[in-house]
Each structure stands twice: as structure tokens, then as C-alpha cells.
């Protein structure tokens, strides 16, 4: 610890997390997440998920009913957690959506939103939420992250649907353009 006139007046601050609860347990349990722990926390929160065997992600079907959503997955990365959601974009809306990307990213500050355009598939709007977890995470922080990311992704999907950016499967109700 540093010493000297400048540092002598500063004392370490102790918060409620530093105090032991009855029985010797800390008030908040911080753990570095691994896949089994994420599965345990999702189960405890009542969040449905499944593993497909094709990727390392935990698929979260909570957004499946949101308009235009292809898939939503939770990945454990070396820096922390990544929750991604892919939305299928109408090719005719690509230019308008490109022009609107700045506003969308400003309206949803907890999300990273970008376009993924490849030659052999419909364009996609990729929505990502990240949670740094290298130093550990509590169950409450994890639950807050997942809930906030799902809610924001759902709002974004609804907004994109209202702006007619999203692809609708053939046979679904499509608004008439005038």
C-alpha cells in the first residue's frame, strides 16, 4: 500500500459485500462462470435453454416469438458472456436499415447492433449484449444481464417490425406498401 501525505488520508472502504453473514458466508457470492454454472443459473431463474450440438452456445428460445428472430444464444467467451440474437432482414429494407443503424445503436445503448450481409443468404441484423465476467459474477448480476438483454432485443425486434425492416416468411401477414 502506498504511503505519504497524499495517501495517508485515504482508508480502504468496506461495503456490505465485505462483511460475513451469519454462518461465515459472504453476502454476495462472486464466481467466475463456466458452462455448468451458467446452466445452473438459467435453471434457477426459470429461463428455458437448450444445446444444439452444432455450437458451443446455450440457445435461449425466449425471443423466438419476437418478429424476425432466427436464433438467440448465450456464449461463454474468455472475456465474459455474449448473448447474440439474429434477425432476418428484408433485402428491400437493407438501405433504409443501414441508414438507421446510428439511431438504433443510440436507442439501445446496452446492445451492439450491426448488419451481416453475405451472398448466399438473407441479410441479418445481429444484436449482441456483452457482460465482462473475467473477475467473476454473482447470480443476481447474471440474471440482470440476461433479462435486460432479452428485453432490449425484444424491443428492438418490435421496433424493426414496425419500420418494416424484417423479412416475413411466405404466407405470413405482410403489410401493403403504398
Quickly name the level 1 CATH class.
Answer: Alpha Beta
**Cα end-to-end separation:** 70 Å
Q: Write down how many β-strands occur, each being a DSSP E stretch of 2 or more residues.
A: 5
Largest sheet: 5 strands, antiparallel
What is the global morphology?
elongated
CATH architecture assignment: 2-Layer Sandwich
Q: Are there runs of 5+ residues with pLDDT below 50, and where?
A: 1-16, 174-178
Total discrete domains: 1
CATH topology: Yope Regulator, Chain: A
The helical percent reads 25-40%
Given the structure, what is the number of helices?
A: 4
What is the ordering of alpha helices and beta strands?
HHEEEHEEH
**Mean of the pLDDT scores?**
85
User: Radius of gyration, rounded?
Assistant: 21 Å
Secondary structural class: alpha+beta
Q: Strand fraction band?
A: 15-25%
Order of strands, widest sheet: 1-2-3-5-4
Amino acid at each position: 500500500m502506498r504511503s505519504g501525505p497524499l495517501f495517508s488520508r485515504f482508508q480502504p472502504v468496506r461495503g456490505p459485500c465485505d462483511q460475513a453473514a451469519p454462518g461465515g458466508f459472504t453476502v454476495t457470492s462472486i464466481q467466475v462462470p463456466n458452462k455448468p454454472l451458467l446452466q445452473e443459473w438459467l435453471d434457477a431463474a426459470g429461463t428455458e435453454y437448450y444445446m444444439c450440438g452444432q455450437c458451443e452456445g446455450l440457445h435461449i428460445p425466449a425471443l423466438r416469438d419476437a418478429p424476425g428472430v432466427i436464433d438467440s444464444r448465450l456464449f461463454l467467451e474468455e472475456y465474459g458472456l455474449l448473448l447474440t440474437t439474429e434477425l432476418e432482414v428484408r433485402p428491400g429494407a437493407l438501405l433504409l436499415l443501414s441508414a438507421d443503424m446510428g439511431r438504433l445503436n443510440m436507442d439501445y445503448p446496452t446492445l451492439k447492433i450491426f448488419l451481416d450481409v453475405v451472398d448466399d443468404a438473407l441479410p441479418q441484423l445481429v444484436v449482441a449484449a456483452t457482460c465482462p465476467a473475467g473477475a467473476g459474477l454473482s447470480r443476481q448480476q447474471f440474471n440482470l444481464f440476461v433479462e435486460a438483454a432479452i428485453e432490449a432485443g425484444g424491443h428492438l425486434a418490435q421496433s424493426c417490425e414496425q419500420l418494416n425492416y424484417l423479412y416475413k416468411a411466405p404466407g405470413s401477414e405482410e403489410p401493403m406498401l403504398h
